[in-house]
Design a protein that fits this description.
With 133 residues, this protein is mainly α. The chain is built from 7 helices and no strands. It is extended.
Length: 133
């Protein structure tokens, strides 16, 4: 149950973004101007000379994250959106937003935004008491 709640909260915080497709390589090449090509050449040549000790780890994690999003998170988000009605999704979103109150409150206090902290507190109290009714 805990795993389900954590996964659900991750999906809600990340959102269910629509997948966009990148333009075809032929279209990208046709749109490039000589100035863009010069910029890319300069960027690539300077990037090759920089040493990154975590490059291997970063590549592995990026590939893992891409695969997790493509094969696990995207289908789960689409299934969640198909199964759970929009009103219920909104209520779940409000519930998890209400759980983030302590972080927002502490952030406002630490930044010296006392008025915003009191506003957050009032919103939290109303959402917690009236929201359950």
């Amino acid at each position: 149950m805990r795993f389900f709640i954590l996964t659900l909260s991750f999906l809600l915080f990340c959102g269910c973004a629509n997948k966009t497709t990148a333009p075809s390589p032929e279209l990208q090449i046709a749109q490039e101007t000589p100035d863009e090509e010069d910029f890319e050449d300069e960027f690539i040549s300077s990037a090759k000379s920089d040493f990154d000790p975590f490059e291997g780890y970063n590549r592995v994690m990026t590939n893992f994250n891409d695969a997790a999003i493509r094969y696990v998170m995207s289908p789960a988000a689409k299934g969640y959106k198909a199964v759970v009605p929009s009103g219920t999704r909104g209520s779940i979103d409000n519930f998890f937003n209400n759980l983030m109150f302590p972080i927002r409150f502490a952030n406002n206090i630490l930044q010296g935004k006392v008025a915003n902290a009191f506003s957050e507190s009032g919103r939290f109290i109303i959402n917690t008491t009236v929201g359950f009714l």
